[in-house]
Amino acid sequence: MADNVRQRIVEAATRLFARKGYAGTSTREIVEAAGTTKPSLYYYFGDKEGLYTALVRDELDRLVHSFDLAEDLPLGTALERFCRHYVTFFQSDVSTIALTFRELFGLGEEAIQRMAQGYFDGLRQRVAQLIARGVTRGEVPPSVDPDYSALAILGILNIFLMRWILQGDAYDLSRVLTQIDALVRGWQIHPTG
Predict the structure, then answer these.
(1) Which of 180, 20, 188 is nearest to 87 (CA)?
(2) Are 119 and 60 in contact (CB under 8 A)?
(3) Measuring CA to CA, which residue among 63, 84, 64 is closest to residue 177?
(4) DSSP secondary structure letter of residue 191
(5) Which residue in 64, 78, 115, 122 has its CB near the most CB atoms, within 10 A?
(6) Which long-range contacts (CB under 8 A, 24 or more apart) does 150-157 make?
(7) Cross-referenced PANTHER family, in alphabetical order (predicted)?
(8) What's the DSSP call for residue 189?
(9) What Å distances lie between residue 76 and 22, 25, 82, 140, 184, CA to CA?
(10) Of the listed ranges 62-71, 82-91, 120-129, 147-156, the one predicted with least confidence
(11) Is residue 108's pLDDT more than 80?
């Protein structure tokens, strides 16, 4: 029963935050929509910011854990697969993702730091693992820094996603992937001779 209450709060908050934004949604509205009480919200999440942070973290954890590192694939193919999965994930649930990007910068530095540690670092590490594996296999030169390269790839993807979500700019996924592929091809070792 307790999980049901928590889940109802999560579902109600997701709908309300997506529709009205973080600042425009009150805890009273959330608990009324969830059919529960403020003490229940406080028990599970501490406060409205804790609830919001949990929503974003849960959604982004789902993304991080849904991606298979595809150990048998060449680096270029694995990264293309990751990028396609990443963009498709965000496109599949626009309300939750819009909630994430619209409100992220309005929560304050501490909340952003918590989300960055829980999500962005985890995601960066997964992409860096792919790239490090490519270095180990000789697919790219040792001069390629896996962490910085992962940040570059995620930066490219996130800029396109933020423009799409916040400004409605639609981008052709295949063109975005072509840009990532050009970056990866630039790393590859070219035979001499």
Answers:
(1) 180
(2) yes
(3) 84
(4) P
(5) 78
(6) 150/124, 150/125, 151/124, 152/183, 153/79, 153/83, 153/127, 153/180, 153/183, 154/120, 154/123, 154/124, 154/127, 156/180, 156/183, 157/83, 157/86, 157/87
(7) HTH-TYPE TRANSCRIPTIONAL REGULATOR BETI, HTH-TYPE TRANSCRIPTIONAL REGULATOR RUTR
(8) P
(9) 39, 43, 10, 10, 7
(10) 62-71
(11) no
Question: Quick check: 64 pLDDT over 60?
Answer: yes
Q: Tell me how crowded residue 174 is: count the other CB atoms within 10 A of its CB.
A: 9
Burial 23-32 (b: 16+ CB within 10 A, else e): eebebeebbe
Euclidean distance between the first and the last CA atom of the chain, given in angstroms as a whole number: 69
Place of tokens 């910085």: 148
- The structural domains of the chain, ordered by start, are 1-46 (1.10.10.60), 49-187 (1.10.357.10)
The identity of residue 103, as a single letter, is E
Degrees to nearest 5, angle at CA 153 with 149 and 156: 135
Say what the alpha-carbon torsion angle 30, 34, 36, 38 is, to the nearest 10 degrees: -20
